[in-house]
Structures are given as C-alpha cells and as structure tokens.
Amino acid sequence: MTSSDSPASRLATRLAFWVAGFGVAAWAPLVPFAKQRLQVDDGTLGLLLLCLGIGSVAAMSRTGPLCARHGSKPVIVAGGVGMILLLPLLSVVSTTWLMALTLLGFGAALGSLDVAMNVHAVEVERDAGRPMMSGFHALFSVGGFAGAGLVTLMLSQAVSPLAATLICASLMAAAMIVTAPRLLVRAAAAPAASTEGLLALPRGPVVLLSALAAVTFLVEGALLDWSALLLMDTGLTSAERAGLGYALFAVAMTVGRFGGDAVTTRFGDRVVVFWGGLTVLLGFLLLLLVRQVEVALAGFVLIGLGASNVVPVLFRQAGSQQAMPAALAISAVTTVGYAGYLLGPAVLGFVSRQAGLPAAFWMLAGLMVLVPLLARSATTTPAVDADARAPEASRGTP
C-alpha cells in the first residue's frame, strides 16, 4: 500500500470530478432533442427535468452513510459506471415514463458520485497537508465545459444524439478505468459511522455549513436560469447576447477555483469566505445599480470570482469538524446545498412574479450577506491539518 498523499490519488480525485461535470453537462444539449422525441410540452418537460434533481438529492442523503461504512471508492466507481450506462439511454428513450425513470437513475448516479468524490477529496487533501479542494472543484467546471461543448459540436455536425452520447460515455469510461485503481481504499468502517441512521442529517456546525452552501448554490442555480432574462428585462442587451453574463460568471468561477488553493494556503479559509462573500455582494451591486452593460458583465465576473471558493471551503470545513463523521457531514452539506440549487430558480420565479426580477436578484444579494457575516462562525477549524488522519481506517492505493 502506498501513501494516500500521492500523485495517483490526486489524479483519481481530479478525474472523478471531471467525469461528474462532463457527464451532467453532456446531457444539457440533448434536452431539446428529448422534448421533440417525446412530444411533450414545457410543463411536462419541466417535471421530467425535476426527476434528475430528485434522484440526485435522494442519493446524496444516502451516500454519506455508505461512504462511512464502505469507503468512498466503491461509491465513486458505482456512480461513474451508472452515469456511463445511462447517458446513452437518455438519447433514445421514447416514452415519458421511461425518460422519468432514466433521469431518476442518472440523477442518483450523479448525486452518489458527487458526495463520494468530495469525501475522497477531503481525505486526499488532509493527507497532502495543504488546500487542494478548489482545484478539484475546478475540474468539475472543466468537465462541464468539455461535455457541453463536445456534444454541441457533434450535434452541429449532424452526429446523432445516440452516437454523440456513446462517444462521451467512452471518454468517461476511459477516465474511470484510470481512476478506479488509484482511489484510496479503507480497510474498515468507522465504528461511530456504522451506527448512524439511513440519512445524514446535519447537526452542530454542519447546520451552518449546510445553510451557507444552500445560499451559495441557490445563487448559482438562479444565475443559470434567470441571468439572461435580467439583462434583457433591464434593457442592457439583446436576446442573442443575453447568455454572455452567465458565461462570464462560469469562466470566472473556474479561473477562481484554479487559483483558490494558493489563495487559501496564503490567507486561510476564513479570509477566503469573508472576502469571497463581499466580492459577490459587490458584483450584485454593479449588476443591479449601474445601467451599463459592460459594468453589469463585470458584476457577473465578480460574482463568479467571489463564489468560486466558498463551496470548496465549506466542504473542507465539513470534513474537519468533529460533531459528525466526515462522510456524513459532507453528505449533509451536499444534499442541502444541492436542494438550494434546485429551489433557486423556482424561488426566484415566485419573487419575480410578485415584485419583479430586479427585486428577486436583490433578494439573492440579501441572502449572500450571510456568507461574510457568518464567515468566522463557519470556519472554526484550520484550512488543513497535516497531522489529522482518520483514526478509524487505514488507507492507501492498491
């Protein structure tokens, strides 16, 4: 067995994040084809898309206990294989109920992989003795760009949806073949974790970490669905250019995460969360107060840069606290955070219908005040404790 602080385990973690981002993004360009194939209206399509989120949240809440008992490796492998097998099915199923079941399964595989890879990342980072979480999350974003871009390119070249997904599944399979033997192995489950219930409910400091994750994910989900409409409704740009705001946000978040580990190493988790939250608030102020498109787009960049490293820090803190086993804490933070991501667009739509879209975005800004306000309370442990090791298990690469 080799040390868990090894290039092999770090490569496996990065590839797991890449597979998750690549797989879910590869599905996005297929949505219009699915709607046409199934002959459903927008309302039915919305319910179908909700199945992916339901499957993810349901699996996330159960994955923490599984990782606590068996380690993250088998869950990562199972989640990755599930996404690989189900992605091509999403391009060919022709009945509404079968699509709903497939999306539930695809979402469950994604949710399981999401939690397990973050549990694995916490272990790798702890043994490395330095911040690495932001870099791991950056690979999810890179996978997202690659998945959406590759499928869009193939579809634009008249490649069939099935062929496109088979190619994507092959790339994901190749990545998982490299990943699986390099994942950390645990000899035994933690006794405390083995007695946990079926669901990972947050308690102690994990409650606050989960709440801040929900706020940050809510902002990200709302920007995805509503940022283009905000730019159009305020007369800042045309429909053809309205997507530029979210694109800049996504690029800024990816760039921020690539540099986030160095920033965290230099300044610490508390500073990253505090100033990250303030940067997001500054971005919202530029977006909502200045009626000039260039300034509004700069606001999207600041929101992306500020939010980029908040969630990685929250995951690190969840893995370091002592109130819950790390696997269960990460499962709780992921589940609550992703619930915020799913609810964000709906909540924003309700507020927009009552008070207008700008008011809804002011609500987002108000919620983000909680991040810098509670930064000190949320970051109670050091960024990385190089001497901290999971006492209940021995780990290594096979």
From TrEMBL:
InterPro entries: MFS (IPR011701), MFS_dom (IPR020846), MFS_trans_sf (IPR036259), MFS_Transporter (IPR051788)
Chief place of localization: membrane
GO molecular function: transmembrane transporter activity
Membrane disposition: Multi-pass membrane protein
Transmembrane segments: 12-31, 43-62, 74-91, 97-116, 136-156, 162-185, 206-224, 244-260, 272-290, 296-315, 327-351, 357-375
UniProt KW keywords: Membrane, Transmembrane, Transmembrane helix
Major facilitator superfamily (MFS) profile domain span: 206-398
GO cellular component term, pick one: membrane
Locations listed in the record: Membrane
PANTHER family linked to this entry: BYPASS OF STOP CODON PROTEIN 6 (PTHR23514), INNER MEMBRANE PROTEIN YBJJ (PTHR23514:SF13)
Protein name, as recorded: MFS transporter
